[in-house]
Amino acid sequence: MSYLVGMSTPPFDPTRAAELYRLFATAVLRRLRVKFPATDTELLADAVVDAVLDFSATSDEVSESAVYFAARYKALTRNRTDCRRKIRDKKAGIIVTESAAAATSVLEEIAIREQLRQREAYLARTSVAIACTPVERQLLDLVLAGKTDPAEMAAAAGLSEADAVRVYARLRKRIWRERKLAATEVT
After folding, report:
1. How far is CA 77 from the centre of its chain?
2. What letters, b where the CB count within 10 A reaches 16 and e where it falls short, cover 89-113?
3. How many CA atoms lie within 13 A of 112 on its CB side?
4. Which CB contacts under 8 angstroms, 24+ apart, belong to 167-173?
5. Which of 24, 70, 127, 159 is placed for a possible disulfide with 163 were both Cys, Cβ 3.0 to 4.6 Å?
6. What residues in the chain have per-residue pLDDT under 70?
């Protein structure tokens, strides 16, 4: 807030801050979420709190729109600052990981290899449960490679498109069932 030169700022009134927050915070935060859907909610909430605190130090009449525009400005500033910090951290992270000190230790490499081995064993075990025939295995490999176009699947497996769609539907059901079983095993 800008004040006239030579005039001191009014003292902070916590009761006024609480009242302004109670009156405007929910509506202003809702409007900010609509305006900035990709921004972290905590960052937006902090902007609302800062705007309310700024207005609580004034004796002026305050409206929801005034708090919204102040919070929007603060959210823009915080968002810009946050993006710049992330870019700096990313650049610093690249520099750090290029140095020898940031290389993975032998124990970390062993742990990574063990995780990969367990993942490969899991995939082998589940792929046998999902794909029972050679054609199903071939289509499962295509699905795992990210290809789900029926024409492409039919051409690769030597099937008609209708048969490829039927086999793919069976595979999807089995994949869903295996994921559900895996989720119950973990919990």
Report:
1. 21
2. eeeeeeeeeeeeeeeeeeeeeeeee
3. 6
4. 167/135, 167/136, 167/139, 168/139, 168/143, 170/136, 171/130, 171/131, 171/136, 171/139, 171/140, 171/143
5. 159
6. 1-13, 59, 94-104, 123, 126-129, 182-187
